[in-house]
Amino acid sequence: MNDEPAIVIDRSPGRLFQLVLLSIVVGTFTGLAGAAFRILLVRAELWRTYLLGRAHNLGWTGVPLVVCPVALAGAFAAWLVFRFAPQAMGSGIPRVERELKVGWSGNTLSTVIVKFIGGVLAIGGGFALGREGPTVQIGGGIGQLIGRAFQRESHECRVLLAAGAGAGLATAFNAPIAGAVFVLEELLGSFNVSVTFATLGASASAICVSRVFLGQAPDFRVPAFDFLNFGILPVSIVCGIVMGFVGVVYSRMILAALRLSLSFDKLRGGLRAAAIGALIGLFGWFAPSLVGGGDLLTQQTLDGSLRSTALASIFLIRFLLGPVSYAARTPGGLFAPMLVIGSQAGFLLFAPWSGIVPSAAAVPTQFAIVGIAGLFAAVVRAPVTGIVLAAELTGGYTLLLPMLGAAFAATATASILNEPPIYDSLRSVK
Questions:
Q1: Which of 117-131, 163-177, 214-228, 257-271 has the lowest mean pLDDT?
Q2: Do the Cβ atoms of 287 and 316 come closer than 8 Å?
Q3: DSSP assignment letter at 288
Q4: Are residues 140 and 270 in the same domain?
Q5: What is the pLDDT of residue 233?
Q6: Domain holding 127: CATH number?
Q7: What is residue 5's predicted lDDT score, i.e. its pLDDT?
Q8: 276 lies in the same domain as 150
Q9: Residue 224 within any structural domain of the chain
Q10: Residues 236 and 149 in one domain
Q11: C-alpha distances in angstroms, 314 versus 130, 184, 291, 370, 415?
Q12: What are phi and psi for residue 92, nearest 5 degrees?
């Protein structure tokens, strides 16, 4: 963020203690909301799979049974946004960044409710969107609501908003440290003692609550890896440079898709989302595993269970499907789709390298994880968050050195190409 939000509050021990206690309350409610959101998305995916199976049994006459529900889900999600809470459009993270600077605008409760319902409809319906955008904005809204309920000052409400946003990201990916780091590195853009305490408290309480329902294990299962030696750093740098270029192209495609959607302004809201939903539903008829948030695809990439040719095809499809889905302007984030293409790009890049330089002592799965960190750093321009998030998602803490090299190179490449961070760019697209 270019403009640092002014969050200055009373740092007296008593006042700070009250704020930390409230942050725990914020985290508890955010953890409950985030867990419910994730559970409903899993249920929606099961229903989508069941419906696809029944439709395929009917042959081509079953196509409308797939296309129409996705179109209707997208249309209803978009209608809810445009009718009741325009602030709930899209990822929600750029909106949270803005609210940290100037304060909350609009009806907070409506935004939280619409973000929750609209996110379940859009992502559960098959749009290639992430769950983290909704949970970040929901968590921020919960922080704002609790701050107001306890009659805190406006600056303290912003602290609780930031804490709730961090707790939302933590819950979305079962990644408590990444949630706190994301607030400081991306949302706030600076270190603040009060925000740090509050965010850590909120993230910790959110994870404690959500893990009761979601389990303890990382979101993705990977084998235990040994630490890699210094010789892996050159290929890590190469990986980061490639991820920098991939991230720049992906960011520009998202922005191009959004701007193209503006040319169809007469289809504003439900009709535009319905048209995109129908396209996704039709695509889901032929390739049901390629629609939705994409966690299964990321896991298959990390498992190494996909052939390189299939992986390359899926990568290209998802590279296009993410921006198209985001152009519908329904609630939904960017992180989960980036996990898919980041892991696949890293895997595809390192697979031939490992054949040429077997002494590298690494396997493509390791660089699938490195690719996640590199792409995140290039697109979001938050390299520390990308490294921590990739490590917490996979348990790949032994890969910190190659992830550090890749994140550095990816950030440098995107900056040299003069591509702004994606959330800065999204704030300029109305």
A1: 257-271
A2: no
A3: G
A4: no
A5: 87
A6: 1.10.3080.10
A7: 47
A8: no
A9: no
A10: no
A11: 17, 34, 11, 19, 28
A12: 100, -25
pLDDT score at 4: 46
Neighbours of 186 (CB within 10 A): 21
Q: Which of 96, 160, 156 is nearest to 132 (CA)?
A: 96
20 and 168 in one domain?
Answer: yes
Same-domain check for residues 237 and 205: no
CA triple 183-220-130, angle to 5 deg = 50
Check residue 287 and give left, alpha or beta (phi > 0: left; psi -120 to 50: alpha). beta
For residues 203 and 234, state if they share a domain.
Answer: no
Under DSSP, the state recorded for 321 is H
pLDDT in tens, 309-360: 899 999 999 999 999 999 999 999 999 999 999 999 999 988 776 666 555 5
Domain that holds residue 382: 230-427
Out of 154, 189, 214, a domain closes at: 214
Residues 96-117 pLDDT 10s: 998 888 777 789 999 999 999 9
CB 231 within 8 A of CB 361: yes
- Count other C-beta atoms under 10 Å from residue 355's C-beta: 9
Domain boundary among 214, 241, 275: 214
For residue 241, give Cα distances in angstroms to 9, 272, 377, 405: 41, 36, 11, 10
Q: Distance between CA 271 and CA 56 in Å, rounded? A: 26
> Which of 380, 340, 344, 326 is CA-nearest to residue 242?
344
- Is residue 1 situated within a structural domain? no
Q: What angle do CA 325, 83, 135 make, to 5 degrees?
A: 55
Same domain, yes or no, for 121 and 202? yes
Say if 131 falls within a structural domain: yes
Cβ contact 394:429 at 8 Å: no
Amino acid sitting at position 269 = G
